[in-house]
Design a protein that fits this description.
Distance between the termini: 32 Å
Helix content: 40-55%
Number of helices: 9
Strand content: 5-15%
Radius of gyration: 20 Å
Order of helices and strands: HEHEHEHEHEHHHH
Shape: elongated
Strand order of the largest sheet: 2-3-4-1-5
Structural class: alpha/beta
CATH superfamily of the largest domain: P-loop containing nucleotide triphosphate hydrolases
CATH topology of the largest domain: Rossmann fold
């Protein structure tokens, strides 16, 4: 069997997150609120929080894309920007829609906290709408700048609720369809029951299986999936529960 790890990632087959393809589960009211936020009918400040893998980043990317159709929108993924310095935040205040993901990444970094505080104030002064997301509420992140915590607490808070197994299976089958794959319920449940239920992990597994399926010109069956994951050493997740 060819090693799928040697194949280049086909970006065209990677689904782009949107509000339309988000599986809401218990987050129906939040999804409706984000659609309204993206329309920009009025300046609004929202704050999303939830455990890793609950769908926060998907929602933020989808909301930013939706908002960008009617105005200038900027998405700031803080964990990916730390190596570039806080100066990258300068000039973003002119965005009508400011979306900031991964607030916990700058906790305890005074230069970053100060830069985000200034960006918050400048965006607000210009009447921009803002959307933030983190793993916990503002007071739980360990931020050292009280004024920044205070500003974030002005936001309308929404907890992103994780999906149950039925919702996770729906997400996986939806992602597979977007890639041109057929993911049977049997294979989907095999992945859920034999591996970590974290959706980010499951999405990465599906990406690898997509590459393997292309390389071997094989459908996704339980024996094929088992052989691919075993060859990559990914079966170490076997038997792990929620």
């Amino acid at each position: 069997m060819s090693s799928p790890s040697q194949l280049p990632l086909d970006i065209a087959r990677t689904p782009r997150p949107s509000l339309e393809d988000f599986v809401p589960g218990e987050n129906g009211a939040l999804l409706a609120t984000l659609r309204e936020w993206a329309r920009g009918t009025e300046s609004r400040l929202l704050y999303l929080w939830g455990v890793p893998g609950s769908g926060k980043s998907h929602l933020l990317q989808g909301a930013c894309t939706e908002a960008g159709r009617g105005g200038r929108a900027a998405l700031v993924a803080l964990p990916l920007l730390l190596g570039h310095g806080p100066g990258v935040l300068e000039g973003l205040a002119g965005s009508g829609f400011l979306v900031v993901d991964g607030l916990q990444a700058i906790a305890g970094r005074p230069d970053w906290e100060g830069a985000l505080f200034r960006l918050f104030n400048a965006t607000r002064d210009r009447g921009g709408s803002m959307l933030f997301a983190a793993r916990g509420r503002p007071a739980e992140l360990g931020l050292g700048l009280p004024d920044l915590v205070s500003r974030l607490q002005w936001a309308e808070p929404w907890q992103v609720r994780p999906l149950d197994d039925a919702g996770r299976l729906q997400v996986l089958r939806q992602q597979a369809t977007a890639r041109g794959l057929e993911l049977s319920e049997e294979v989907g449940r095999f992945l859920l029951h034999r591996h970590s239920r974290d959706l980010r992990h499951l999405s990465l597994l599906l990406e690898r299986l997509d590459l393997a399926s292309l390389a071997e010109r094989r459908r996704l069956t339980v024996p094929f999936v088992r052989s691919v994951l075993a060859a990559e050493g990914r079966d170490r997740f076997s038997g792990r529960g929620c």
